[in-house]
Amino acid sequence: MRVSGLQQAPCGTTARQVIERARRCGAGAYVVDGAETRDKAAALDAIGRALSFPAWYGHNLDALYDCLTDLSWLPAGEHVLVWSRHRELATHDRDVYEAVMGVLADAAETNQRLTVVLTDG
């Protein structure tokens, strides 16, 4: 399934379609619902919940990167994080959106087991 670390799904592709494709390819699929991510705290919490981050997760951008580049608590293999309606965060706080996207992109480039896919629905 891996194409690049962080990618925008083609227009009209739903989160469900990405999840089904990831699972067919043998990857673990994890979903962040963008409707819940209107600020930094909510976005960091939603990502942490989706990937079952450990108790030591510090709910900040550095800790987000650390967890995304580790993922040792998840089963071996590829992991696909699908963020549906990701633009919801940008609508409410563009600076936070760009910072979080930067961390996701950096982490997915560092951790070859992680792919992040952004969907509009």
* Name of the level-1 CATH class: Alpha Beta
- In total, how many beta strands? 4
CATH architecture classification:
2-Layer Sandwich
Strand order of the largest sheet: 1-4-3-2
Which blocks of ≥5 consecutive residues have pLDDT under 50? none
Q: So what's the overall shape?
A: globular
What is the CATH T-level topology? Barnase, Chain D
The named CATH superfamily: Barstar-like
| End-to-end separation | 20 Å
In what range is the share of β-strand residues? Answer: 15-25%
Mean pLDDT: 94
Oligomer class? single chain
Structural class: alpha/beta
**Into which percent range does the helicity of residues fall?**
40-55%
Protein name: Barstar (barnase inhibitor) domain-containing protein
Family: Belongs to the barstar family.
Organism: Longimycelium tulufanense
